[in-house]
TrEMBL record:
Superkingdom to which the source organism belongs: Bacteria
Annotated ranges, domain HTH cro/C1-type: 12-68
Protein name according to UniProt: Helix-turn-helix domain-containing protein
Family matches, as InterPro entries: Cro/C1-type_HTH (IPR001387), Lambda_DNA-bd_dom_sf (IPR010982)
């Protein structure tokens, strides 16, 4: 899957303008180096960043936790701004629901013994 660092740069710049934040303020809020903010905001160096860095940047910009990661992957963002669940997360949720259901059935059986 292609990564759209230019879209991330656009999202960061737009949000910084909206909130009237400087690069230094964003770096401080995100707990990242000023150089990292510069590189991301201006798409200067396309390198793999950790999910933690993008999450910290999202939080620093008062965006939902996975917002910039979703922008990077080209995932649609619903009206509430939350990244859409990937197929893998949806699958895990279904499996968890199944395990929960089975556990509750076992607890019910044990309670009646």
């Amino acid at each position: 899957m292609a990564k759209d660092w230019a879209a991330v740069a656009d999202a960061i710049s737009a949000r910084m303008d909206e909130l009237e934040l400087t690069q230094q303020q964003v770096a401080s809020r995100a707990g990242v180096a000023l150089q990292t903010v510069r590189e991301l905001q201006h798409n200067l160096v396309e390198r793999n960043r950790t999910a933690r860095t993008l999450e910290a940047m999202s939080a620093a910009l008062d965006l939902p936790r996975g917002y910039l990661g979703a922008v990077l992957r080209g995932q649609p963002l619903p009206a509430d701004g939350q990244p859409a669940d990937s197929a893998a997360i949806a699958d895990l949720r279904a499996k968890l629901a199944n395990v929960t259901e089975r556990l509750e059935a076992l607890e019910e059986r044990v309670a009646h013994e």
